[in-house]
Fold this protein.
Amino acid sequence: MHSTILLGTRKGLIAYTNNNGRWHVENFSFEGQPVSIAYADPRDGTWWACLDHGHWGVKLHRSTDRGAQWTEVPSPAYPEGEEVKDGVPAATRYIWSMAHGGTQQRSRLWLGTDPGGLFVSTNGGDSFQLVESLWHHPSRKTNWMGGGRDQPGIHSIVVDPRDEDHIHIGISCAGVFESTDAGQSWQVRNNGLKAEFLPDPDTNIGHDPHILVAAPTNPDILWQQNHCGIFRSTDGAQTWQDVSQPEGPARFGFAIAVADDDPNQAWVAPADSDMVRTAIKGALCICRTDDGGKSWKEYRKGLPQQNCFDIVYRHALAVSGDALVFGTTTGNLFYSPDRGESWQPLNNYLPMIYSVQFAE
Amino acid sequence: MPTVKFTYALRRFFPTLRDTPASGRTLKEVLTEMDQVYPGVKTYLIDEQGRLRQHVNIFIDGTIIKDRTLLSDPFPETGEIYIMQALSGG
């Protein structure tokens, strides 16, 4: 199990370390500043903080000494003249995802942004360039739209460990796109998804995958918590199957996590429908499937069961071996040592939690 | 020669900020000049397309500028250019 938990919150970055079975705060950085993503690169232990200054724009910082000192690096910037739509200039509004490029591509890093640009670094994050092939995809200006944010955004970047030029990304709202050539070209992978909010739910582009993940032990098995349910693919995203509970609770939500050692075991953090977006009936639960989504079981032990409004954002649920952790919109951090069957609060009264990651 | 003044809120990121004389003839030139004195400060004030960030304001001799896109507002030779943040958020 990893011994560090990294949080990105509305008021800063918080790192917890486990010593002798107890979690304590090791580092608190960027006090008062929104951290959209706190990310530890497992290849070299570098910590990254994606900042969303309300006034001063999006900034990117990194630390090579576990947050003791931070250095600002140039944040991803759209080339001069680029537009989100005709007449709407493109500027980075939010960094919504970060992923390393793999152990063979040690200097490669990916960033997903609002308003819809994917950025890549080939020098360890010293600088980032817009991935032009995706930005100029013929569907972008006409078929992509805001979802969760006002403009389209890339919140998921999944790198295949068997072939690091093979990546899937999740875009709200557009759907899942796949590249097999390190981002030079893209294919749409939304077959089987439903977009019930559109006039044509079976549209090719316009889906809202809230988060996309792949099973570490079999990257051809992908899962997504979608706006319109939970979907699973067993063929590398060529086709998707709805594995939601028709009447819930495992249906609407934002986060999903897959077991390190079992592609059929996954967890979701259900929320009431998109019209409500609170804990269902004031009670928090985590649902787990052990059979690839055929059935789901609710786990509530240790979680608040009344007067609770917490939901879990898309990057705020993480797994490491038997351990799970999730952070909520109302600043509660819960930990499970037994694959989600029981929970204990690690910290209450935190700021709104945007991202949670296990790290070394 | 106009003087550029900065909101105290920016000193968190640029601790050496102080009232600074500028020789540029346009606001764009002045911001570029300030970026040479305080490397990186320009990206805190304008986005990559050159527009003033949504929650940043610039006052010239007490009057808020009109052109937030091209930053074309003129200023007198001895004017005061005041850069501040909007009081928003929570």
About this structure: Chain B touches chain A through 19 residues (CB under 8 Å). The helical segments of chain B are 27-37, 41-45. The mean pLDDT of chain B is 93.
